[in-house]
């Protein structure tokens, strides 16, 4: 996994090296750390005149969080790499920009349910021992379009700040599986149906908006 992440991070640096010669003719080149909802990584920008630029981003995102939905505590454990390539337009040649492009996501989001109290599934209540273990994963589309708005002061000096707010138009596929438990066989089918009903409900809720929110701030040097 560590080797994979290093190779993915090298994608951005490779893109930077490819576009460095163009930057020397087109205008300026900026590079610096950035972080937000797509993790912590690097942003690189190549200016194309006063009103446009190309931007590349890479973020490593990991961690755990718990979401309670219908009274069920879902634990999410994410280990994701986000790669982005965008065209930035500066309508007034100032710091405000409109961005469009694409984002790629690689990695895993594991899901588990480990209750300490009885849970209701499909209209029936189960104790933690009866429920056993529920595990699964969230799959996302590997490449999706992106639209956003931003502010970038890097074009005005050597050091600068940037802020972007946008959306990656994503779709989520949730998988949940129940294992073990102390229920007799004739009640196991009802439990399986209850888990499937909750899976469908949570997946529908995740896809109601159909986007992954992107909020990212950065600090960089203008070369």
Structural overview:
With 223 residues, this protein is an alpha+beta fold. The chain has one domain (2-222): Porin. The chain contains 3 helices and 12 strands; from the N terminus they run H-E-E-E-E-E-E-E-H-E-E-E-E-H-E. It has helices at 2-26, 128-131, 185-206; strands at residues 29-36, 39-48, 52-69, 72-89, 96-113, 119-121, 124-126, 133-140, 143-152, 159-168, 172-179, 212-222. An 8-stranded antiparallel barrel has the order 1-2-3-4-5-9-10-12. A two-stranded antiparallel sheet has the order 6-7. Strand 6 (119-121) and strand 7 form a beta hairpin. The radius of gyration is 22 Å and the shape is elongated. The two termini are 33 Å apart. The model has no long low-confidence stretch (mean pLDDT 87).
Please give a quick description of this structure.
The chain has 223 residues and is an alpha+beta fold.
Descriptive key words:
12 strands, 3 helices, alpha+beta, 56% strand, elongated, 223 residues, 8-stranded antiparallel beta barrel, Porin, two-stranded antiparallel ribbon
Report the radius of gyration as a whole number of Å. Answer: 22 Å
The count of strands amounts to: 12
Question: SSE order, as H and E?
Answer: HEEEEEEEHEEEEHE
CATH class: Mainly Beta
Domain tally: 1
Q: Mean pLDDT, nearest integer?
A: 87
SSE blueprint:
Layout: H1 2-26, E1 29-36, E2 39-48, E3 52-69, E4 72-89, E5 96-113, E6 119-121, E7 124-126, H2 128-131, E8 133-140, E9 143-152, E10 159-168, E11 172-179, H3 185-206, E12 212-222
Antiparallel strand pairs: 1-2, 1-12, 2-3, 3-4, 4-5, 5-8, 5-9, 6-7, 8-11, 9-10, 10-12
């Amino acid at each position: 996994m560590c080797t994979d992440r290093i190779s993915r991070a090298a994608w951005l640096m490779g893109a930077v090296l490819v576009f460095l010669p163009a930057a020397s003719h087109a205008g300026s080149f900026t590079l610096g750390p950035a972080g937000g909802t797509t993790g912590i990584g690097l942003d690189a920008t190549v200016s194309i005149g006063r009103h446009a630029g190309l931007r590349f981003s890479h973020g490593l995102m990991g961690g755990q969080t718990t979401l309670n939905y219908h009274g069920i505590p879902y634990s999410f454990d994410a280990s994701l790499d986000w790669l982005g390539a965008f065209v930035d337009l500066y309508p007034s040649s100032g710091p405000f920009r409109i961005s469009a492009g694409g984002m790629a996501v690689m990695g895993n989001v594991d899901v588990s349910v480990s209750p300490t109290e009885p849970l209701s599934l499909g209209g029936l209540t189960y104790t933690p021992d009866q429920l056993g273990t529920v595990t699964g994963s969230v799959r996302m589309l590997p490449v999706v379009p992106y639209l956003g708005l931003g502010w970038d002061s890097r074009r005005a000096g050597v050091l600068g700040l940037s802020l972007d707010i946008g959306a990656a138009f994503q779709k989520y596929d949730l998988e949940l599986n129940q294992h073990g438990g102390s229920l007799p066989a004739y009640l196991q089918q009802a439990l399986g149906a209850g888990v499937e009903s909750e899976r469908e409900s949570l997946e529908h809720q995740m896809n109601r908006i159909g986007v992954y929110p992107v909020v990212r701030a950065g600090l960089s040097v203008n070369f």
